[in-house]
Structures are given as C-alpha cells and as structure tokens.
Amino acid sequence: MSATVDGSTPAVGIGADAAVGVAVTGLLLAGLARPGFPLLRDWVSTPTPPLSDAALGLGESAARAVPQDVAVVWATRALDAVGLPVWPLTGLLTAVFCVWLAVAAGALVRRVVPGADAPGAAGFLLRLPVVVGAVWNPLVVERLLQGHWSLLAGVAAVVSMPVLLARTGPRVAAACAALAAAGLTPTGWLLAVVAAAVALGCAGRGGRRRAALWLGATAVVTALPWVLATALAAGSSGMAGTAAGGSGVAAFAARAEPGIGTLGSVVALGGIWNSAAVPPSRATWWAAAALGLLLAAWALAARGLWRARRDPVVRATLPVAIATWLLVALAATGPGIAAVDALVEAVPAAGLLRDTQKFVALALPATLLALGSATRALSPRLTPAGAAAVITAVALAAVPDAPRAVWDSLRPVTYGGGWATVAAIVGGQEAGRGVAGGPPGDVLVLPAGSFRSTPLWAGGAAVLDPAPRMLDARVVVPGDLVVGTGGDAAIVAGEGDRARRATGALLRGEDPRVLAGLGVRWVLDERTSAGPRGQAARTLQATTTRFADTELVLYELVVPNGPGAAIDRAGPPAASPAARAAVLAAHAVWLLTLVLSAALAVGAARRRSRRSSAAPR
C-alpha cells in the first residue's frame, strides 16, 4: 500500500487504467467516429454555434447548459482558427470524461482494496472490473442515450473527490480542477459540490479548513456563469419551468425497471425517467438478472468493505450510496413527488433537483468499490485472472447491449446547406428591415415544440431542435417537453410563455400582426420534421418567403403589397451589453479557474512523483 501512504500513484498503473478506459470508451462511442455532428435528444452539436443570449443563459429559458454552450462556442472558434474540423469536438470531450472516469475508478479501488496498488498484473487484475464498470454501467449509458454528454464530467468528479480529499493536503488543487470541470453544467456542479462536501467531512482534520476555503471559493467562482445569468435574464423564471398543475417532478422521477421496482433500478444505477433512452436489455427480464449478479458481488464485497470501514474513502462513499438509493426511490413515490414538487416551486434554482435519477451518480463510487472488493474476495477461490474475469462479466452484464444501443442511436448528422443560408439571413447580414431603431425580430419555428423528428436526423428519433444553436438570432421556443406516450403522456412546460402564445397564434392561423406584436419577425418551417402545424399555412400566406429548399422554408413577416414595408414589432429587448459583458466575464473567470487549478494539480503531482523517485528503497 505504499502508493497510498505518500499520496502518489504509479504512473504505469494509471496508464494501464487509462488504456482500459480508452478501450471501453472506444466500444461505447464508436459511432462518433463517423463524420458528422452528434444529434441525439439533448445532445445538439452544430458547425457554427453563435454566442447568443441563449448560449449565455440570458434568454427566456433557464440557464441549464451554462457555461457548456459558451465553452463549445469558444472551442469551435479556436478549432476553426487553426483549420481543424469541428465535428469531433463534443465526441472527444465525452471520450475524455469517460477515460477520466476510468482513471478515477482505478485510484478509488487502489486506495481501499488491499493489493490493488501492487505493480504488474496482480494489481491490474484487481482494478480491471472497477475500471470497466466505471464507464460501462446503466447510469453512463442511459445519460449518453439521453444526450447528457457534459454531465459525465460531474459523474467523473463524484468518483474523484473521495480519493482527492481523503487527505486534504496534497490534492486540493486537483479537487478544485475536478469541481471546475464538473461545472460545465449546473447539475454537474451540484453533484461535484455534494461529493466534495461529503469527502471533506470524512477526511482527516489536518488542513481541512484550508481545503474547505479553496473548494468553497472554487464552487462560488464556477457557479457564477449560470447564477449571474439567471439573475440578469429578463423574464427568467428560475432553473425550472412550471407546468400546469406542477413543476414536472412526477414526469422526471426515477422509473421502475421490469421485475425490480424503483429501488432495484437505482441500486443497479439505472431507472432514467425517459424510457426511450434505455437500452433494450434494461427493458426486459434481464434487468432483474443483472441486479441479482450485482447483489451477489455486493455480498462478496461486504466483509472487505466492513474491514475498511474506517477509511475516509469508504466513509465518504458507502453511507452516501445507501442514502442516495433510498432518497431517489422515495422521491418517485407519491409523498416524495409532492415534497420535491413543493421544494422546486418554493426555492429558486431548486429545479436542479427535479430529475432525481441523476443523483444516482453519487452511488457510483460505492458500487465501484464493491466490484473491486468482490474481485479480491473471489481471488483465493479462483485465480486472480479468473476472479477479474467473473466480476468484469458482472459489470458488463448490467448493460450487455450498451455498444449496440449507443451505436444505433448516436448517429452523427450532416446539416443541409440551407441552414447556412438561413443563418446568414436572420443573423443580421440583411438588417434594417424592421422598425427604425427597433429589434430585428425573433425566429419562431415549425412544427410546434422544442423537439424535432425527421428522417434526416437520428433515424427519425426525437432530437432537440438545433435552430437555437445554429442561428445567431433569438429563437422563440417554449421549452415544453412531452413525457410518455398516448393517454399517459404528460406535458412539462418550459419557461417560454411568450413563445407559447406566439406558437398558439401561428397554429390558429391568426394575422401575422399578432405574431409581430409578440416580437416575431421570422418563421422557420423545418419541413421534413413531423409535428403540429395547425392552421399555420393561413398565417404564412400573408408573409414573404425569403428562402426555401427541400428541408427548410424561411418566412418573413412583412406586408407583401408595400415594398419594404414592415410590421411593427414589440418583442422584449435583447440582453443589454452590460449584462452580456458581465456574464462573459464570469465565463472567463470559470475557464481561468479550471486552467489554473489543473496546472497547479499537474505541478503538485510531478513534485510528488519526484519525491517518490528520490526516496530510498
């Protein structure tokens, strides 16, 4: 256990863990090697994302993808500047997060399981099931299928924190870097903050106050982009939308899988609310079989984990896992839904708690420790290689069809050339047609809704409309989400009340002046997408067609019989230059914090490595 005494870890062992992580990640994300932009449910990648108010979190919708969207814009522009392709960007970032997960899992088991830090094959075999299981599990696969690629940074931070903060001196900078990276989204930030707070509370007393100050400062700074955007956004209603009759908590509660109920689903790290984002194997009796295998691994691990119960890493993971399983399952019951619903309605930003199943990430470290401890317990009965093979099979059995499910769903797309033309028209290159001194007007999309279902994308599966991340204009979308099908479908309303009114007027075929009065100048019909269009044709007859191809039709709300005449528009003002500058500055501070803390962590690791190499043997 010498590697855990001085806080260092053998570079060869880390490299082996990373290699396994790369191999598993390659199997899961092989589909992203195909040229094109990822487009799957909430995963929207575009060639030229604009630095719009929506990207900054200053639009009418909540700042849920902040600072992620701005970071992607900056990275896209950097790649363009040096002549590199943009399409692999989010796929590569996702792969980095998955490999981070694998390396963090290796460090976790190396800390707790005796012999896992041994050099050579002996230590590697004890770590193998853990490293595989860190990436290949229902939580990661289902979040990939839902398109939550950036959330994996938060999941990786959750796995990292117990080891980084087990001893508060040497690795505080690395913990700050992990927290900053997790802060790509508010949800990832929250997961990392919870994991860091628990790990810090279980750590030794030496240096804990200093570590708390550094982590607290990092947490404040890395939350600034979305906190400041939410405070400055005109018309923002907080971090969650309100639906008729509630906040949508019931629709986002953890889902029971066949034969194992909600509690069994979350213990197995599954149970995402969207059944369409579930691999086929998890929707059959196999879910119960996989849970049985996992519980058998837990039974094998119990003695070893009990013996290690005083280790700060164990104290920071096992109780949290038990609490997480119970609370997430309870939140899916009637009383639990009512309690979370009341919290979301009463507390600003509590909408982060609405999707309770994502907090299953807090149970992942304990599950990984169980796999490692089970491997050690099984080794005397089998060979080390045999034990590693059996427990690795248990990890793989949780989602045996993971690669096929992700390959089939995650199909990169190539956008038609019409998108660039539409972006050029609405992006201001032909400005001046609105009221003098007034806003150029916003874009309303057809068919109605925030999601698209077209044979051109993802084989017709529902995907989030890429228009807001494609057009440098304010795209008016209500953000409503339909959860379920048929009579069981529920509509979770977003924050876009103006968009809802404008869409309703368009579907009713009302006069274009009604839309203009709500600030709309353009209507973009994504004609290959299925969805409600109502009587929109009646409204659009009194407009001017500015562009049309087989995929898109762009209409402008101008009076056709008066050359150049325009309709008065009264939409809400765009974000002020001061607000944009303030939020951009917050993003820059977040990025600087990430870079500096990562640099300090790398420097500290190198110094530890030199001291370890110079120590007498």
Q: Would you kindly provide a written description of the structure presented here, covering whatever features stand out?
A:
The protein is of the alpha+beta class. The protein folds into two domains: 2-410 and 585-608, no CATH class; 418-556, no CATH class. The protein contains 24 helices and eleven strands. It has a five-stranded mixed β-sheet with strand order 6-3-9-11-10. A two-stranded antiparallel sheet has the order 1-2. It has a two-stranded antiparallel ribbon with strand order 4-5. Strand 1 and strand 2 (43-44) form a beta hairpin. Helix 5 packs across helix 17 (364-378), helix 7 (138-146) runs parallel beside helix 19 and helix 12 packs antiparallel against helix 15 (318-330). The relative contact order is 0.14.
Q: What brief labels describe this structure?
A:
alpha+beta, 2 domains, five-stranded mixed beta sheet, two-stranded antiparallel ribbon, 11 strands, about 5% strand, globular, disordered N terminus
Largest sheet: 5 strands, mixed
Strands of the widest sheet, in order across it, are 6-3-9-11-10
The helix content is 40-55%
| Number of contiguous helices | 24
Count every beta strand, where a strand is a DSSP E run of 2 or more residues.
11
Brief characterization of the structure:
This protein is of the alpha+beta class and 617 residues long. It folds into two domains: 2-410 and 585-608, no CATH class; 418-556, no CATH class. 52% of the residues lie in helices and 6% in strands.
